[in-house]
Amino acid sequence: MARPTMSHSSSFLLPTTDSAAAAAYAVVVLNQRLPRFAPLLWNRARLRVCADGGANRVFDGMPELLPGEDPDEVRTRYKPDVIKGDMDSIRPEVKEYYSNLGAEIVDESHDQDTTDLHKCVSFITRNPPCSETSNLYILVLGALGGRFDHEMGNINVLYRFSNIRIVLLSDDCSIFLLPKTHSHEIHIERSIEGPHCGLIPMGAPSASTTTTGLRWNLDNTSMSYGGLISTSNIVEEETVRITSDSDLIWTISLRN
Ligand SMILES: *[C@@H]1O[C@H](CO)[C@@H](O)[C@H](O)[C@H]1NC(C)=O
Questions:
Q1: Which one of 206, 220, 224 would you pick to mutate in the ligand 1 pocket, going by the greatest count of ligand atoms within 8 A of its CB?
Q2: Which of 171, 206, 238 lies at the terminal end of a domain, its last residue?
């Protein structure tokens, strides 16, 4: 079955990049330690949203990531546009600080049905920082590490918004969804990512997945929990191609 091809690249993590011009980035910060590249992505983003306690992480973490600069100046420069969520984790002084700087604070404690990340992504899709949402990337910092149920909830958001490009990022890896509606071409930025990668049939088993560019390629291979899932694979080529009858989670290690 012929499917359209979707291209993916992590060029937003490169210190300098031209391709960033074509894409529009929104950054979401959740309540985990900020990865080292948080300032870079923040500067590159057109919209910055903190989920609840994520605001504490920006308040505490940005000055730590930029030592030698005046903490208050850093905090003024790295101000969230919007703070959303339950508001049970943000410290009162952090809330007041950013509120005084003009950040929009939206208390959503009445909505207990969706996670903080869900609320942030849904806000961004309703207020996109660009006209074409196909050019929009939502980069999520702090989605991994900490409680496992939170991590699984964040991965579920990738499935809930499978038509939006959402990338979960930590210091160690990036994760995104490969919808089965497309064939996928992943351009590997070797200076910043790899070689370890995984291809995981998280939502449902796959009866047939085919890849090129990996050390252990799949050829019309079935994958499922309890059977084969592709972990600790290795990227061998500049471009990895993946086609599957099922939505898959792609993950690749990030270099220090
Ligand atoms: C893929 O595998 C299935 C099940 O083993 C088989 O029926 C099918 O013909 C294979 N397709 C290709 C393109 O090899």
A1: 220
A2: 171
